[in-house]
């Protein structure tokens, strides 16, 4: 088995260090230990790891491990393995929505982690990728106006999270659709080839970007510019294929 670059997301330093030692002893690389949501998102943007080990209960974070995983997967697809002391069914059901490669209950033996990593890698290599086939569908049925309405993905300008809701801005529509759901969950249904996660609260359709000026995006047929976070600008320029002057 080849050496993998693995991201550890764990707020307990002792546990994280033990995991790092076990993975490196097995021949893998652990360039970063992220302790919270912000560090995890920065690491996945910067490194594009092969896999992530995620503690669900991140006490020193603005979001738990499941929400962190959803948002990371919207940026970069990879196998994820959850590590948790929580064996409650509701927590497992939430985690299951992100299609993890494994869900390990603490305490566990270090060799068990290494074995699960190898299984996850083999499944991916054999075509068992953690992919939601709805990602490739041309349209979605979204809960709109007390029913379900078909929405073509190509007509979506961007999605904006506001509290417990997501606003879906459509091409040539005066008002956005308002959905009561998490953006991290909704983002998995949009292809990474066309949609880009600018921030925790914003997913944009790259095909509808008409112009970029400094840290602002101008979308097609949309009067309001979108602010680009400084930590996303360089990656976005690469994604758009921007040719910069010297």
What does it look like?
This protein has 246 residues and is of the alpha/beta class. The protein has two domains: 6-125, Rossmann fold (3-Layer(aba) Sandwich); 134-240, OB fold (Dihydrolipoamide Acetyltransferase, E2P) (Beta Barrel). The protein has helices spanning 13-25, 37-47, 65-75, 89-96, 110-125, 183-187, 230-240, and strands at 6-9, 33-34, 51-55, 80-84, 102-105, 139-144, 147-152, 156-162, 165-170, 177-179, 195-199, 202-205, 209-213, 216-219, 226-227. The strands form four sheets. Strands 2-1-3-4-5 form a five-stranded parallel β-sheet, sandwiched between helices. Helix 3 (65-75) links the parallel strand 3 and strand 4 (80-84). The protein is globular and about 55 Å long. The relative contact order is 0.10. It comes from Larkinella rosea. Keywords: DNA-binding, Phosphoprotein, Transcription, Transcription regulation, Two-component regulatory system. InterPro entries: CheY-like_superfamily, LytTR_DNA-bd_dom, Sig_transdc_resp-reg_receiver, WalR-like. Residues 5-121 form the Response regulatory domain. Residues 140-211 form the HTH LytTR-type domain.
What is the CATH architecture assignment of the largest domain?
Answer: 3-Layer(aba) Sandwich
What is the distance, rounded to the nearest whole angstrom, between the alpha carbons of the first and last residues?
A: 43 Å
Strand percentage: 25-35%
Superfamily (CATH H level) name of the largest domain: Response regulator
């Amino acid at each position: 088995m080849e050496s993998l670059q693995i991201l550890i997301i764990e707020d307990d330093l002792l546990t994280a260090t033990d995991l790092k030692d076990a993975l490196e002893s097995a021949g893998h690389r652990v360039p970063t230990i992220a302790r919270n949501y912000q560090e995890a998102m920065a690491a996945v943007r910067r490194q594009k790891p092969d896999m992530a080990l995620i503690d669900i209960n991140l006490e020193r974070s603005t979001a738990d491990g499941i929400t962190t995983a959803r948002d990371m997967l919207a940026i970069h697809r990879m196998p994820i393995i959850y590590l948790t002391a929580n064996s409650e069914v509701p927590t497992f059901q939430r985690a299951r929505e992100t299609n993890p490669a494994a869900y390990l209950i603490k305490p566990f033996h270090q060799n068990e982690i290494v074995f699960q990593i190898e299984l996850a890698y083999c499944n991916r290599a054999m075509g068992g990728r953690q992919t939601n086939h709805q990602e490739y569908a041309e349209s979605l049925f979204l809960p709109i106006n007390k029913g379900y309405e078909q929405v073509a993905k190509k007509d979506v300008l961007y999605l904006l999270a506001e509290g417990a809701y997501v606003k879906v801005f459509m091409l040539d529509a005066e008002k956005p659709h308002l959905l009561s759901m998490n953006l991290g969950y909704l983002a998995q249904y949009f292809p990474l080839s066309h949609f880009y996660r600018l921030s925790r609260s914003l997913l944009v359709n790259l095909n509808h970007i008409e112009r970029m000026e400094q840290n602002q995006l101008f979308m097609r047929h949309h009067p309001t510019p979108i602010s680009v976070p400084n930590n996303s600008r360089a990656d976005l320029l690469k994604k758009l294929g921007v040719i910069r002057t010297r």
